[in-house]
Design a protein that fits this description.
Layout (H helix, E strand, L loop, with lengths): L2 E9 L2 E9 L3 E5 L3 E5 L5 E5 L2 E6 L2 E6 L3 H10 L4 H5 L6 E5 L4 H10 L2 E4 L6 E7 L9 H5 L2 E12 L7 H10 L3 E7 L4 E7 L6
Parallel strand pairs: 8-9, 8-10, 10-11
Antiparallel strand pairs: 1-2, 1-7, 2-3, 3-4, 5-6, 6-7, 11-13, 12-13
Length: 202
Amino acid sequence: MGKELTCTARSGKLESEGKALLETNEVIFRGDFRLKIPFREMKSVKAVDGELHIEFPEGKAAFVLGPQAEKWAHKILRPKSVMEKLGVKKNQTVSVIGMTDRDFLEDLKRRAGKLSTGKAARDSDAIFLGAESRNQLSKIKALGKSLKKEGGLWIVYPKGQKHITEADVLAAGRKAGLKDVKVVGFSATHTALKFVIPLSDR
């Protein structure tokens, strides 16, 4: 989930107090009226005197965000790549289990120092587990044992599904003795949730 702020929003003749949320690929507003503006549909984005102004096919919207307006505009205009969001660095050992996204695997090959697919390498800096169902979450505990002390285990699961939810992923990771620290939008259809070994266990 992205950063949420309480603000005033204006769109056309409408004005309302509410919650504005900056997600990975869209801005959402919930108040007396609602807006969901995908980045790809934005015609212009600029920060003016503490307001974020967005022009999109249905019209224009302004969000009174104060100092955050500049930061939101920057994040919208220059979004991080998936690799940047996931924190994968050069020369790291990365393991991937249950994922077949060709573009993602190619990006990992170019960035990681060592890539293991189908099996977790010992002392992995990062492990990615693709979980399309709750059953696959049973692998978390074993995979955690292959992490470096400061490494991260990412669970990549589908958005908006009832057969596997964020609550399921959180529960499985915590049951395995890991601590959840970060959530990012992996793609239009999937979310990635990061777990680490608690400091007390390192």
